[in-house]
Write a structure and sequence with these properties.
Blueprint (H helix, E strand, L loop, with lengths): L2 H14 L5 H12 L5 H6 L7 H40 L18 H15 L3 E2 L5 E3 H4 L24 E3 L4 H10 L4 E10 L11 E11 L4 H16 L5 E8 L2 E10 L16 E10 L1 H6 L8 E8 H8 L13 H4 L4
Parallel strand pairs: 1-4
Antiparallel strand pairs: 2-3, 4-5, 5-9, 6-7, 7-8, 8-9
Helix pairs in contact: 1-4, 2-4, 5-10
Length: 341
């Protein structure tokens, strides 16, 4: 064999013995077998300088070297491919004898859990569940609820306005107007849902929160019916024996109006951290439906009367689950929500 070709062969074998990766193998292939810059291609270009009688033998030697180099590179490639396959199999190997991992299941949000419990209680008392739009006109959000122009509740500092006559509803009382427009008395409905007010977020306030509206319209409805209904609700919600009390208050859509408290379900009225030592927990606002509200939906207040109440579901959830900051209910922290599975 030509001495230069023999030296090139020995040099290749030495370099091939040090190849340790597929990338190095590719580089070695390009170095020796590259069509333009490969070392063997350079040897083929020497044919013109070889004496005529030696050219055939030289050409055979170059081809023999190229075949030997290709064969050795192929063997190395197969070795690296086999090694990579073995590593992949080991990396992806599954031990079928190991116990399986159960996928984590989702669960209902604490607000939803409480809302469902409230709905079940009132449905058992003969109420139906109603819903309504979250964007309302001034008529449904204010006028029909006896909240006149100029009332502070209509100010943009308290209400989220979409335009001059549309706003995010500031109470679920709007649903009672829709219901009374399409359904004639007698009727008993509750309306749970989101409401929106321009409150600064803190431990007990949020600009978006959940509220429950209750409405009962029939002939000869009195404050006694309201008190009995809320008393029964409290007993079914928190346990028997709890007492309710009414405190005079004012709401534009009820007359007379009252704030309702119930005896603390933790300390039974003796005073504790949950009720802040007072023995009482605020339930919500209530009262007899104002005659002007009935007139706004073409119901004769001389023939029919009714009561309405509004409960804050978020605050009820905070008290029931001992949550000291209702903002936690809306931060989507899985560590917090997992407690309510």
């Amino acid at each position: 064999m030509d001495e230069k070709l023999n030296n090139l062969r020995l040099r290749f074998l030495e370099e091939a013995s040090t190849v340790a990766s597929a990338d190095q193998l590719t580089a070695l292939r390009d170095k020796y077998l590259g069509r333009k810059a490969g070392l063997i291609a350079a040897e083929k270009k020497r044919v013109g300088s070889i004496p005529a009688e030696q050219r055939a033998a030289f050409g055979q030697q170059v081809n023999q070297l190229a075949g030997e180099v290709e064969s050795e590179l192929t063997k190395l490639g197969e070795r690296f491919a086999s090694q990579a396959e073995s590593e992949a199999l080991e990396r992806e190997r599954i031990d079928i004898t190991l116990p399986g991992t159960r996928p984590r299941q989702g669960h209902l949000h604490p607000i939803t859990l409480l809302r469902q419990k409230i709905e079940d209680i009132f449905v058992s008392m003969g109420y139906s569940v109603e819903d309504g739009p979250e964007i309302e006109t001034g008529f449904y959000n204010f006028d029909a609820l006896n909240i006149p122009v100029g009332h502070p509740a209509r100010d943009s500092a308290d209400t989220f306005y979409v335009n001059a006559d549309l706003a995010l509803r500031s109470q679920t009382s709007t649903v009672q107007i829709h219901t009374m427009q399409r359904t004639r008395p007698p009727l008993r409905v509750i309306a749970p849902g989101r409401v929106f007010r321009r409150d600064t977020p803190d431990a007990t306030h949020n600009p978006m929160f959940f509220q429950l509206e209750g409405l009962n319209v029939d002939r000869n409805i009195t404050l006694g019916d309201l008190k009995g209904t809320l008393q029964r609700f409290v007993e079914l919600m928190y346990g028997p024996g709890l007492v309710t009390r009414f405190r005079p208050s004012y709401f534009p859509f009820t007359e007379p109006s009252a704030e309702v408290d119930f005896q603390c379900y933790v300390c039974a009225g003796s005073g504790c951290r949950v009720c802040k030592g007072s023995g009482w927990i605020e339930l919500g606002g209530s009262g007899l439906v104002h005659p002007k509200v009935l007139e706004a939906v073409d119901i004769d207040p001389e023939e029919f009367s009714g009561f309405a109440f509004g409960l804050g579901i978020d605050r009820m959830a905070g008290r029931m689950y001992d949550i000291d900051d209702i903002r936690l209910l809306f931060e989507n922290d899985v560590r917090f929500l997992e407690q309510f599975v």
